[in-house]
Amino acid sequence: MGEKIRDLPEITIADARFRLEINGSSNDGGEREIHIHAQNNKFRMALSERDFFEMGTGILLARKQLELLKGMSTDEGDNQDVHTK
Predict the structure, then answer these.
(1) 17 versus 27: which is more confidently predicted?
(2) Pairing mode of beta strands 16-24, 3-13
(3) Which in 16, 25, 42, 84 has the greatest CB count within 10 A?
(4) What is the pLDDT of residue 37?
(5) DSSP bridge pairs for 69
(6) Dihedral of the alpha carbons of 75, 69, 66, 62, in degrees to the nearest 10
(7) DSSP character for 81?
(8) Cα dihedral angle (84, 5, 52, 50), rounded to 10 degrees?
(9) d(C-alpha 52, C-alpha 49), whole Å
(10) What span, in angstroms and rounded, lies between the C-alpha atoms of 40 and 19?
């Protein structure tokens, strides 16, 4: 079981809000591993720090591609998709 390091700002994806927290692994010896938990009352996901950034990058790239395909400006897209609070 890991130890909670700190809370991050909440994010909203579509209509779902998620709490984010950073946890460190409790492995003795070796490198300390960081995990990010995204959770709400219906869903929980634990990702390594690298997987979290890869997934986040994928979401942001998909948003940009959608904006380009639909002819949306970044300002129009700011009211949708992924937000932090």
Answers:
(1) 17
(2) antiparallel
(3) 25
(4) 87
(5) none
(6) -120
(7) S
(8) 140
(9) 5
(10) 6
Residue 27: domain span:
3-84
Q: pLDDT (tens digit, 9 = 90+) per residue, 23-45? A: 887 666 655 677 888 899 998 88
In whole angstroms, what is the distance from residue 3 CA to residue 73 CA? 41
3-state SS track over 11-75: EEECCEEEEEEEEECCCCCCCCCEEEEEECCCCEEEEEHHHHHHHHHHHHHHHHHHHHHHCCCHH
Residue type, 60: L
Element (H, E) at 7: strand 3-13
Mean residue pLDDT of the chain comes to 80
Contact at 8 Å (CB) between 3 and 23?
A: yes
**Number of domains the chain is built from:** 1
* The two three-digit tokens of residue 73, written as one number: 């400006």
CB-CB contact of 56 with 29 (8 Å) = no
